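Help! Submission page says 'invalid entity' but I think these are all valid:
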Amino acid sequence: MVKRSSDYINRASVRCLILSATALFLFMTVAVRAAAQDSFIEDTVNISAVTVTARASARLSPYTVVKMDAELLSRHEGGDLASLLQSSSNLFVRRNGNQGLASVSVRGMSGSHTLVTWNDLPLNSPGNGFSDFAIIPLMAASTVRITSGGSDLDDISGYIGGKVELATDPEFDTGMTADVSLGAGSYGELVSSASFTLGGPRFYGRLGAWSGKGTNDFRFINKDAPEGTRHERRSNASFASGGIMGDLAYHKGNSRVSTHLWFNDADRELPGPVTTVQQDFGERQTDRSFRGVMKYSLDGDRLTAGLTAGGSHDFNRYYHMVSSNNGDNSSSSLMLKMRLGYRVTGKTGLVLNAGDTYERASALNFESREERNAFSASVAVRYNPLPRLNLLLQVRQVAVTGVKVAPEFTAGASWMLSRNGEHLLKMSLSRNTKLACFNDLYWIPGGNPDLEPETSAGGELSWSFAELRPSGDRNTLDLSIYASRVEDLIQWIPGQSGLWHAVNLRSVNVSGLEARAGGQRSPGRWKLNGWMNYAFTRSVIAGSDIANDRSVGSQLIYAPLHHANINLTAGREWLRTGLSAAWESRRFTTSDNTEWLPSSIMTEAFAGAIFPVGPVKLQADLRVNNLFGIPVESVRNYPMPLRTFKIRLTLTWSGKPNENENVL
Amino acid sequence: MKMKTYCKIITALTLLLASACEPQEKPASYPEGEGFFVLNEGNYLAGNGTISFYSLETGEIYNDLFGTVNGRALGDIPSFMAVEGSMGYIVVNNSGTIEAIDMATMESLGTVTGLASPRQMVINEMKGYISSLQDGGIKVLDLDGMAVSDEIEVGSSTEAMVISAGRLFAAHWSAGSTITVTDLATGNLIRTISVGLEPESMVLDCNGKLWVLCTGGWQGEEIPRIVRINTSTLEKEAELQFRTVDDNPSSLTCNAAGDTLYYLDEGVRRMQVTADALPSGVFIPAGDRLFYKLIAGPRGMVAVTDAIDYQQKGDLLIYNSRGELIDTEQAGIIPGYIHYMKD
């Protein structure tokens, strides 16, 4: 389409666009991290003893671990996992537009530095290292556990940003439940889901299915249009997705066996960036995944054991208006992992982890099908020299063909300052690594098989307060400071040849503070919840092998210095309502910090009503995203929708009504 | 007396205040005189391409000229600029646009949209010929009406173009190895000349000979070469091979006199058009720089860009005729194509 020049003559007055040089932010070596909403703490805060053989509880872990439980997830029904993490945690979600690739980054690192697992099975693509949260439905998890930093060495190989663990935990003895849900939203969005759950004394089974689609042709504001700022509609942005998930579990005595299956299918058009004009390259991609996990666990008095076997196959097909750009990518992985814990004495416990993962991937730009096998073993010693002091030392060695990986370690302590466990002081030191992804290693041109693993070394100090009153009211506050140095960060740059290639190039100093605070009150028949998160993240390039690199001393791109969110919910018998807001300071888009996206705020409000009729419960929800219709871009030139609405009706039948059920 | 003094003071303050509140005069975006325009490509998909001007009169660089004047971004990957009289035409590759600008003010006078990955543009008799990385055709732009009026079908994607004696020479760079020659009067294809894998840049010398730099393919499929073509007979006259398949030459250009060629190959190399072999020595070593684009300026000067890490503002480096660095200026993000403006 060619438009005549007269249509575009722009006599706009001169506007000063001053791109000021990088602001020098205060380096904070000591900071505080506060907080903890009630849903993040464990049910029991009166911890008088420390279990030494089982996995450390989130709160007692010497490094920062927070848990989103089923209650919080259920409050977000109708939303998606990425927006839940953005609005309710200290994680930063980077979205390539609505329904586009959404990656989650922790403590200033990129999304590829975040390990994402589902029932212990890694979901990160072996190709680019990312996990796309845009196609992970909320239904895929009953709990979400978030580890900040790479201190947890229980996994087969490491990560240096953080870990997001999704799990579908069996709930025995809950009876029979079935639900059907239908929803509709702005811009042609239609969603539906159904699930059937059977929770017997020994047996648990759950089958769920979901689907969603939408034209996604939302309105946005294009500030760079040739005619000047104007409203436009997004094109080539429709999506359709669906999936089935099944869980089976059986337990007898201290033993439990479970299996989890997940088929996911997503077909998305990929809108181009909004630059001077909205672009449409006819891009589209299909992602199809099949994942399966089998687990066995034994929780004895002195001995605990776990065995997990799993595998996944992911297929990705990419379409472009130029057919030569089309490509099929596929990857598969197999994993076998065991865990053995033994309480040697009342004060000492040993945990041994060992596992092997085999990954293989094919892509248009790989010379052949690429493979990698990684084996690792770790030993952890937990020791309680005093009743309120818990020490941890864990060492892991990863063995990968052709790659030299230095031993990793975590040493930490948690100390209950008060007898009832309300106050807790924690600290840890850690050195961990992340293996290069296949694209960095094998992409043609530019892949570099000689890449070293990225490494991170640092520590953190936390104070945790959790109060549970007899009335049921709760108050929590968690503060953490941390600092680490990342070496051998992999970057793609063009060399003298002009061809881009991957090299271990830069080092990054990461430091910051995190705070979580929360509270719950029950005045009369109301139940009120409130929680907030704040993260100050300074991830600064400390060294570079690039000549004349002016990025040294600058914040990493797309790593907001400040991230904060607040959530308020209120409910009584049949009513529930809530409001959340997530704010991010500006995010730099160039490595020398001369350009950035402005700070942004996303607000969300919901209201719902529940109408119980015997064993049947009808629930109606209304959700408003971006309540104030503020233009937001998470990734430059990929706008998010202005105000959107979503309604949802859910019919739930329960064969075992819970008289004490609370809507919140 | 006192009252008069007060009045004067109040009047002066009022005038001062009024002048402060008035919109400021639009500053001259860049000084007149000779210099180099630099197209800064910006980050891929970010739409933050800009245009800079380095003044040889003042020795300073003036950045983001288009955005400052027009209040909007130039677009995604400005890759080439053609100039005809007082008008400039900036090819914005990934935006699929061509911005027509007043060269004196940088004001946008029109935008052609909807082009499929336009790369370069040459002008002949008020018609612009636009190559494309995706199309098998060369779009013909009527510069008066700013509308695409025709298309020359050449079979595959095109990059560099040269017009000589009413003939359009178009290089098939991306995975190609030929140059097509089209008669502009009839639009008919005259000949396809096989030159070497991936002809990346080409230039006419003072003798009317066409020099073509072939990179040998991005995977190093064959040894790069520079080929000289007689534009009258359309025959290859010479073929100068580089050393090995690992060489990565680019950015062949020519001085204004047309007697000296320059190109990038481990730095800047130069050779006379009468030479029968490639130069063995480097005229300007790259050192720790990553040279990206090159142009030969007046009086033997050479301007080179360094895009550093391709995620931050890069540098424009100015060398004298002896190859000595005489100035370094910070341009925009990924400074690429350079256009010499005589005056």
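Support: the input was valid. A stray whitespace character was the problem, and the output above is from the cleaned input. The first helix of chain A runs from residue 70 to 75.
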